[in-house]
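[audit] Reproducing an earlier prediction to check determinism. Same input, same settings, fresh worker. If the tokens differ from the archived copy the diff job will pick it up downstream; this log only records the rerun itself.
[audit] input (713 residues):
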Amino acid sequence: MKIGVDFGTSFSSAAVCINGKVQYITFGQDQQFRTAVFFPDRHVDESLFSLTVEYEREIDNVIRARKSRYSQQLSEYEMRLAAVVSEERKMAREGDPYSPREKEARRSTLIKPRRFADEEMRQAEFNAIRRRWRDQQRESIAQEGLHVRQATGVFGEDAIDALYNSELGRIFQSPKSMLGFKLEQPYLDIVTSVVAQILAHIRRAAEQQLGTEVRSVVLGRPVEFRGSGASVDHQAPQRLLEQAARDAGFTQVEFLEEPCAAALAYHVGEPAAHEALIIDMGGGTTDVAYATVGGNAAKPVIHRVWGKGFGGTDVDVELSMRVAMPLFGHGNEHGLPLYAYRSAAKVADLSRQQAFLKYCIKRVVEPFKTRLEILGEKGATVRLNRDVEQLKIELSDDRTAGLSLDFIEQGLAVHVEDVALTTSAQGLLDKLGQLLEQVRNELPEANPVIFMTGGMSRAPYVQDCVRKYFDRSRIVLGDASFGVVTGLAQFAQPFVAADPVQEEKRMTQLSERYARAVAHADESAALYQNKVDDFERQLQVQRNIFAGTKVAKYLDLLEEQVSSTHEANQLAGWLPHGDKFTELEYFEALVRQDRGARRYTSLANVPGFLRHEFEDCDEDSFRSYADELRQECRNVYGWVTESREIMEDQPGFDDFFDELGSWPDEVVAKKRHADLALTLFDNLYEGWQRCQKAGLDLLQMANYRTDDFDPTL
């Protein structure tokens, strides 16, 4: 089996093409992972960890507490903001208004608390619990006198988490960016070994998912490796990457330039032939290809390629220098030299990181000295880099954002406006402009469609720069994360048309499986509806009994939450909008529940017997349609949680029923009548409890059992 691997500066991914359908390799729950590896000093078997009921309860409690804390912080922020606004209005009325700069300075001290989604908080707490479990296991190993070292590392976000947890070991991030630099042999050996470890991790994940041995790979490579621009030997980085791949267990290694891979992915979905300019802008490199794509040709025709070693990490460094490093003394006469701060910001450069650590900070004044000491601790620069990267993402969408550095100093934070990002990105845009001007000059008459992919393709300022040089071209935004790896997988396993008879047989089997899956979903939906009907019957009875009491108000609220949950189940795809699922509605349900966009990313994923429903849909509109369905599903899970919390916050009725239950003893004189009254009370109370339980049990998703079964595969 041959796979395609996009070994990226910031993130890496892999995919395989089977019968013309691209299947992405998953790493944990994701289809890509941060290109980082942590080598711990001791080994704990992570497969032994399980999320117990107690852990789930702990996670729920933490989420509830964090929501409460957020509400309190938001209230305090709004009060402080109101006080600032009130003071400004007072000064204006008195004829001495604040200037715009003074207003900006006053408000810059206020940082609006960030609201985290339930899923984000759940994942963070899950990671914390797993880290705590890992610590307990390591302590147990230490007590038993066992000293087990593992040959391979911890990868992706787990590597960063291990670093945050102050585990013993070393972390390496973005090793691809070092392949093109002229390094001393010890550093070169380290980088090559780290790359081999990451590629071996990818190969193992592919073998586990595909159930077969994987020894062949098509690796993407930039047109020009970062740092190799002035090198005499431009093939040296590729040789290092090939050696690392062979060390990782691949026996057959091929390379395809990344913009050519993206061109192939775009080509497959285009019915009509046309000229296209493929722009792949990632974390470390920017590549461009001019090609003829689409139509009946087996593959695109690549006419020219261009490439330079710059990308999104350049913006990260500049943004860090502008908003973070001043907190450590950058720009202060008693701080460190400029080179030291820039070295600290370049987390992927091993030699620059070592240079930063060697600087003497004895003469640096406080508070910068203490902050620099903490920044020099293991992994602190990596953590700062990730926080700055997140700030970059937020400022691409919002006018302001906050950077909190509590891990350096409690309460250390800075309020940042989007102009900081614009300024930090200017150097990158200048380089991109020079590259695009070169392309434009070499294609003076061309008016190609612009196909953009890579992580930086979504940045508005990058898109604006492209429009400046190709103002007459239509821009198509491809998959920012998987445009390259899709083409690599398609190049690795070219599609061969199936035998018509076998294809018809396969489609018949697929249609039958799909019908069975729809029927199964209908059965589950019917069971849920039966529970709703039963609740409504009980509700009507209890309403008549408790009319005019506070219990009746509770029942009204419970009915409202059950109705809201029913609507949420429809939007999440667990319940049909009518009596039964239509074929299209069930397909939309599958897309809604496709967490992480693992299966439905292209029109090629639509079953043949449903293709007519998407006749007027192109790849871009299908991706937007699928993303909207998945987002709807994510949103409504919060509705259900909110409904449960609303009912949990309602007062109990123990006092009401205690008072009601004491009535027979106080009022009824004859024992026979008292016993009868107590029996009536017991029946009344049991009826109330059954109705309440029936309603609360409906405040959840009506999940029909899928076991990851997908009838379209």
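[audit] rerun output stored. Observation attached for the diff report: Residues 53-130 form one domain.
[audit] end
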